[in-house]
Design a protein that fits this description.
Elements (H helix, E strand, L loop, with lengths): L1 H19 L2 H9 L3 E5 L2 E3 L2 E3 L4 E5 L5 E4 L2 E5 L4 E11 L7 E17 L7 E2 L7 E14 L6 E9 L11 E6 L2 E5 L8 E5 L1
Parallel strand pairs: 3-9
Antiparallel strand pairs: 1-6, 1-14, 2-3, 4-5, 4-13, 5-7, 6-7, 7-8, 8-10, 10-11, 10-14, 11-12, 12-13
Protein name: CHRD domain-containing protein
Keywords: Signal
Organism: Candidatus Segetimicrobium genomatis
């Protein structure tokens, strides 16, 4: 009898949480199964366009990586695709390597809600589809010139007004001994579109 009473209490608690959860939580739950696009865009004349670049810096070495790119993923299924280019430079600014990166798999997605400010025009999708969030993806870096490809983890962090949590705008690329975090000055911008 005590077991049934415990189950009933848990059931009522879950029902109450579902009914009284904030709208952003409902939006986040809905987003978990939808198709999501990510971009490392540029902003020109108050218009968000594909084709930007983001820069990350490895704290211990001062090395930087510059990324361009875009892609898509479906969290509920775990499908992911996309890619772009990379340029790796040590702290003296000379180029060590450049090439392409491609998405090889999905890791995690944390939708954040919010929306692109209305003072900007969305040149990629619909402004109503924009969302903050963090995605982690498995990627492969393929340097030009025949060097061996490297597996890495790419995180895309997007912060928007009205988001349910704070994150620093930009990218994080974890490859070998390097952890390229968002450069505080040159980081660039990111954007998610939750496609219906």
């Amino acid at each position: 009898m005590k077991r049934w009473a415990s189950l009933i209490v848990v059931g009522f608690t879950l029902a109450a949480f579902t009914l009284f959860a904030p709208a952003s939580s409902a939006q986040q739950r809905r987003a978990l199964g939808l198709h999501v696009r990510f971009d490392l865009p540029q902003i020109l004349q108050n218009t968000v366009l594909a084709g930007g670049k983001d820069v990350g810096v490895d704290g211990p070495t001062g090395d930087t990586v510059e990324l361009t790119g875009s892609g898509e993923f479906t969290p509920g299924i775990g499908n992911a695709a996309g890619g772009g280019t990379f340029v790796h430079k040590p702290s003296d600014g000379t180029e060590v390597a450049h090439g392409v990166w491609v998405v090889t798999g999905f890791a995690t997605w944390r939708p954040g809600g919010g929306s692109l400010p209305s003072i900007l025009t969305d040149g990629i999708g619909e402004i109503t589809e924009t969302s903050a969030g963090i995605v982690a993806l498995h990627v492969r870096l393929v340097p030009e010139g025949g060097e061996s490809s490297l597996n890495a983890i790419l995180e895309v962090h997007c912060h928007l007004p009205g988001a349910s949590f704070d994150t620093e705008e930009g990218i994080r690329l974890i490859v070998g001994p390097f952890v390229f975090d968002q450069d505080p000055v040159l980081h660039g911008v990111t954007l998610f579109h939750i496609l219906q």
